[in-house]
From TrEMBL:
This is Alpha-catulin. One of its GO terms (molecular function) is actin filament binding. It comes from Zapornia atra (Henderson crake). It is found in: Cytoplasm. It comes from the Eukaryota. It holds the Pfam family Vinculin.
């Protein structure tokens, strides 16, 4: 009411800017809203002075940061410097006007203060808010610039990747590409979390999910193309991935910069739900105002809704019963609106009690009819989705494509690609119908993302399957088909959760927000995993467990350096050791609130898998004991028994049921502690086994890290370096795949 407000031209789009301003606005409002003639007690005067000084000090610190940013970014230096000077000046003015502690002394009466110049305080406050907002928005522009620069780097490296003709060159450039994607992931992840607009947030999440999936596809599709340079289907497959990544990168920049190419305005697709909601609001608004819209306006709105219902009535997948009901309700809606318009027009001419009662009845009947129509289309869309998801849950077509591809059976592959195309059409139609009944804009965007994923991934699976059928002995063509099939399966799994959320919204249960964007979810295939409420560690808990996490980190480095020393990287002991080290590193990242283990449930599941891997290692040690000298066997078996005991203890802890925040944290602490103990033992076991193997063979089993060799997969220290650098975009196995790349396939 005092006219406070930031510059009207400065739109605040992020939570961080908004939250920085909130306490400042609160303090200034306290000053502005003081009584003009309060009881001037020492306590009141001191409080006013304290607030004024606090504002000035806070602004001083804030401006110092702003000036430092200005010095580092020359293109914004002038604007930023002016805003900083204005903010500093306004802060000092407020401090002077609130210097009222000595007002009870007569000699101070001539001093201009908040009591004698309230207009001056309002003016200074407005200038302060405007200049501080300006500094924040300018700083935000720098973040946007960083994202654009990062995107440009990714695009430039993608162009290089597209043109490479040798494996060596590809490996080198892809490693750089991985680092650039991780940087882009961090920047866009922070931005996504900071956005205020839920719709933009959902679009950003969808684009980042596409980039996460496509990074792996780009790797295997490019490898396949390099291995089979004359294969047309391999080239089509690769080109599709690059095209989709470019579109996703473009969409991220559109969201970040709030712009569209060629100045187009964003056309949001209209859903039946949003149409009915708006129509009902207008109809119910007639109770308050009979003249605020025309009958033509209302008729047009209903026509648009009924046009959209044709998506259901024209669909081959809508049941006969649902189709009939939707057509009946559409006809009824037209009749109800005609009746409403008739009474409404009469009421405009003569506002009698009877007419107003008739209008109320017409409003209620129209809204009731629209509610029934909404319920019917919801039922049609969700029952179709439930049936399709249940029917396709066995992934029979994908399994058949993999088998017939490896057999080189081109005729059978062609038959199953037709079936996959049919399945794709069904799922795309399902997504379109679900979008109409999704209930919220973010869920609508998730439906559009799902539709796009099925639309694009279907043909990509087909081109990957054709490539494998043409080259049935190619390991990389087989791996490539696997990656595309996994993306399809993952999207189907996400659709089940999306369907649940859509039903929750319809029934008025919002519940926990879920993510349906094909991000890796450790343990999603574990049938015994109960759907518990996901929990993350808070900052205080992370601080408590930090030391333990750091110890785990150091142990993974130690184990990595031990596994790297082995000549035979395919030795079972080495492979189990590397797997355990990789999992332990994921658990370390969790203690920092980073990495791919997002919730405590993810951590517990990872601990179970880690313990299972440890038990497998113990079995490998028992087998290895037959190769060593009799004198050394007891020591090795003793260590193996220790390992089995520790892994059993970890399994019991990870599976134990707990309730409540404190108990959950204690379980996290125990899991990390027991994992650390297993890793400590592993760090002792690996050099012992290497020493015993050397002794048994009478030669050294150690040698420097080997070069790339034909027909050989190298899995060295970097086996989980991707996870060390990729927290945000889910590029879990990016570097893993680079280091595991077969340089020259033997077949």
């Amino acid at each position: 009411s005092s006219g406070l407000g930031a510059d009207a031209g400065l739109e605040i789009r992020t939570r961080s800017v908004e939250q920085t301003l909130v306490p400042l606005v609160s303090q200034i409002t306290t000053l502005i809203n003081h009584k003009d003639k309060p009881k001037r007690s020492d306590k009141t005067l001191q409080a006013i002075q304290r607030v004024g000084q606090a504002v000035n000090l806070a602004v001083g610190r804030f401006v110092t940061v702003g000036e430092a940013i200005a010095n580092e970014n020359h293109e914004l230096k002038e604007e930023m410097s002016i805003a900083c000077i204005e903010a500093r000046r306004a802060g000092e003015t407020i401090a002077q006007l609130t210097d009222v502690a000595s007002l009870d002394h007569p000699e101070s009466d001539s001093h201009i203060t908040i009591f004698t110049d309230k207009t001056g305080v309002v003016k200074a406050a407005r200038l302060l808010l405007s200049s501080v907002t300006k500094v924040l928005v300018l700083a935000d522009r720098i973040v946007i610039k960083q994202i654009i620069t990062s995107r440009n780097k990714v695009l430039a490296t993608m162009e290089q990747l597209e043109k490479v003709s040798s494996f060596q060159e590809f490996v080198q450039i892809f490693s750089q590409f991985g680092n650039e994607m991780v940087e882009f992931a961090h920047l866009t992840g922070d931005r996504q979390n900071d956005l205020k607009d839920e719709k933009k947030k959902a679009r950003m999440a969808a684009s980042r999910a596409v980039l996460e999936k496509c990074t792996m596809m780009l790797l295997t599709a490019s490898k396949t193309c390099l291995r089979h340079p004359d294969c047309e289907s391999a080239r089509i497959n690769k080109d599709g991935v690059f095209h989709r990544m470019r579109l996703a990168l473009e969409q991220v920049i559109e969201i970040v910069t709030d712009s569209r190419p060629n100045g187009e305005s964003e056309m949001a697709p209209i859903s039946i739900y949003s149409g009915i909601k708006e129509f009902k609001n207008k109809v119910e608004g007639l109770r308050e105002n009979l003249y605020f819209l025309s009958k033509e306006n209302l008729s047009t709105m209903l026509e648009v809704i009924l046009e959209h219902t044709e998506d259901f009535t024209d669909s081959a997948y809508t049941s006969h019963e649902h189709r009939e009901h939707i057509l009946e309700l559409s006809k009824q809606a037209k009749m109800e609106l005609e009746q409403l318009v008739s009474v409404w027009m009469q009421a405009q001419n003569q506002k009698t009690k009877d007419l107003m009662e008739d209008l109320e009845v017409a409003i209620l009947k129209t809204c009731q009819c629209m509610n029934e129509l909404k319920r019917e289309v919801h039922s049609a869309a969700t029952s179709l989705a439930a049936d399709l998801l249940k029917y396709h849950t066995d992934h029979m077509v994908l399994k058949a494509l993999k088998i017939t591809g490896v057999e080189g059976n081109l005729e059978a592959v062609a038959e199953y690609t037709c079936k996959l195309s049919e399945q794709k059409e069904q799922l795309v139609e399902m997504c379109r119908l679900l979008r109409h009944v999704s209930g919220t804009e973010p869920l609508e965007i998730t439906c559009i993302h799902a539709e796009d994923t099925f639309q694009v991934t279907g043909p990509q699976i087909i081109s990957a399957a054709e490539t494998l059928a043409l080259h049935p002995s190619s390991k990389i063509a087989k791996e490539n088909l696997e990656v595309f099939c996994e993306a399809w399966e993952s999207q189907l799994s996400d659709m089940s959760m999306l369907l649940r959320e859509i039903n929750d919204v319809f029934e008025g249960r919002r519940g926990e927000k879920r993510v349906y964007l094909s991000l890796p979810r450790p343990g999603k295939h574990n049938a015994n995993l109960k759907a518990l409420k996901p929990v993350k560690l808070d900052t205080e808990e992370q601080a408590k467990i930090a030391k333990l996490g750091l110890e785990l980190h150091l142990l993974t480095s130690s184990v990595d350096s031990e596994t790297e020393k082995w000549e035979d990287q395919e030795n079972e002991i080495v492979q189990h050791g590397q797997g355990m080290s990789s999992m332990a590193y994921s658990m370390y990242l969790f203690t920092r609130g980073e990495g791919l283990l997002k919730t405590t449930q993810d951590l517990f599941h990872q601990a179970e898998i880690f313990a299972t891997e440890g038990t497998k290692l113990a079995s490998a040690l028992h087998a290895f004991s037959h190769q060593v000298h009799d004198d050394d066997k007891p020591l090795l078996l003793l260590e193996a028994e220790k390992l089995i005991s520790m892994c059993k203890q970890l399994q019991i802890t990870a599976k134990a049921s707990v309730q409540g925040k404190s108990a959950t944290f204690s379980k996290v602490d125990a899991c990390i502690l027991k994992t650390r103990n297993v890793m400590t033992l592993l760090g002792q076991l690996l050099p012992l086994c290497c020493k015993l193997l050397r002794k048994a063979r009478g030669n050294c089993c150690l040698k420097p890290a080997p070069p790339w060799r034909e027909g050989r997969v190298w899995t060295g220290t970097n086996a989980h370096s991707a996870e060390r650098r990729a927290e945000e975009l889910g590029i879990k196995s990016l570097e893993n795949h680079v280091t595991n790349m077969t340089f020259l396939e033997s077949k």
